Amino acid sequence: MEDTEKGSQEQPESVPEMGEDAVTSVGPSSPPAMTEEERQELQEELAKVEDEIQTLSQVLAAKEKQLADIKRKLGITPLNELKQNITKTWQEVTTSSAYKRTSETLSQASLKATAAFSNMGSVITRKLEDVRNAPTFKSFEEKVETLKTKINPSAPTGDPGNEDDGSAENTESLISQPENSSSQEPLMH
């Protein structure tokens, strides 16, 4: 039976940090070898420590109030403190070696990406010029120009009453070509 009592005494219970909770957690189970005088002395020490804790709490509260008053007089608001903390943190981050390495890497990647996009733009420009210079596109461009001049002549020539100058046939042949291509549209959709 003594072994079970020793086992329960060896396992410390969690002791709260505040005064009264600490007293209640220790409880009345004090060792029987303690004299009344020792018990009285411990109780006085307990009261003294509790008083010190209360005094320290009051001092801390007074210091916090004093701090708030000084900050208010200096114009330091919580928002200003937050800004200062953010600025300080940002400065610490930007001076860190990890940030510098990352910044250098991103800078190099940016330069490479810019070069790649520039190259890609040049290639696209060249390809579009090649397409524009292709015989098929030239032929198409000429047909569009002819159609444009037939529909909207820049300088009216000839008799306005004479519409039988052969231009109607040319317009019909140009117009019939887009109709053929429009018949292919449903296949593309």
What do you see in this structure?
Helices cover about 80% and strands about 0% of the residues. The protein has helices at about 1-10, 20-25, 35-75, 80-95, 95-135, 135-150, 165-185, 185-189. Helix 6 (about 135-150) packs across helix 7 (about 165-185).
**Helix share bin:** over 70%
Unreliable spans are: 1-12, 157-164, 174-189
User: In DSSP terms, counting alpha (H) and pi (I) runs of 4 or more, how many helices?
Assistant: 8
Percent strand: under 5%
Query: How do the helices and strands follow one another from N- to C-terminus?
Result: HHHHHHHH
Rg measurement, Å: 47 Å
What overall form do the CA principal axes indicate?
Answer: rod-shaped
Distance between the termini: 93 Å
Helix/strand-derived category reads mainly alpha
The total count of strands amounts to 0
How can the largest sheet be summarized? none
Average predicted confidence as pLDDT: 75
Short description:
The protein is mainly α. Helices cover 78% and strands 0% of the residues. α6 crosses α7.
What topology emerges from the helices and strands here?
Blueprint: H1 2-10, H2 19-26, H3 36-74, H4 78-94, H5 97-133, H6 135-151, H7 167-183, H8 185-188
